[in-house]
Amino acid sequence: MQFNSKIKTTYKIPPKLAEYNKDLNAIGIDLGTSECCAFVIRRNGPEGVVLDSVTNQRNMPSYVAMNELNLPCGQNVVNRMVTKPEYSTFDAKFLMGMELEEIVIDPLWPFGVISYCEEIYITFGNKRFPPWIRNSVDISSCLLRHIKTKAEEFQGIRLEEAVITVPSSFTEKQKDATIDAATNNLKWRLVKLLPEPIAALFAYSYETEIPNESTVFLFDCGGGTTDICIAKIIGNKIDILSEKGDPLFGGKNFDRVLISYFNSVLNHKYGLNVLETNKKYRLMVKCQEIKHTLSVQTDAK
């Protein structure tokens, strides 16, 4: 991987608000492959919104159940995966704006993927009920609608402006799909996209003063993608010198390694292959928990 010193893009670091404006109706959203989170402005500065009513956490798994009228999202869907995976979906961000031949099919997906009218659709169903399809953009719209509802309840006002982070490796088609998901009957007045590494640098600069003329290295390994960026800080500007991303590598790749390992152990000791049953989703969740633990500790049980 080679980098050059030519400036590609320049961003302006947003200043801290001099005083709290109760009428500020904007939200920042991380629409992640694995998890979502959202922040709004409060009197004491940016504050995260509790999105998941099951865990009461700000981070919410990017899962949607498609066979219920209210289209539940988050941990509620994760918990039912073992018994009712057929109408559950995740990884929608990974599918939006992609071509069918670009998609690497994940054997853990409880859904199918097809191309229809030059867009990616997800197919659901089981042996008892006929299959039906849903646009991958609609799945992300469900997540964004849930986020908007929770944030407006938290703020007590209608939110009209949104900034949504996207991988720096996103193509124009993927960016357009993200905008479509955000404007699909959600009544935003303004939606802007921001590269995820830049959003991380904005957040860091809010908490820590970065010396002028510093050269910084940004590394963002998300749930489904990885971004690397080199930037120069000049006053309140960020000059992007070079950036590179892998749209197919992220935290879920670590999940798959752990799943494969533990399935091999179970197969060797007990002759079990959980990947052939719905118990694979229980193993998937446990491996994600182990990964999260190993991110901050040297061992996990």
Automatic annotation (TrEMBL):
GO biological process entries: response to stress
A molecular function GO annotation: ATP-dependent protein folding chaperone
Alphabetized UniProt keyword annotations: ATP-binding, Nucleotide-binding
Pfam families per UniProt: HSP70 (PF00012)
SUPFAM superfamilies named in the record: Actin-like ATPase domain (SSF53067)
Source taxon at top rank: Eukaryota
Family assignment from sequence similarity: Belongs to the heat shock protein 70 family.
Protein name (database record): Uncharacterized protein
Species per Swiss-Prot/TrEMBL record: Panagrolaimus davidi
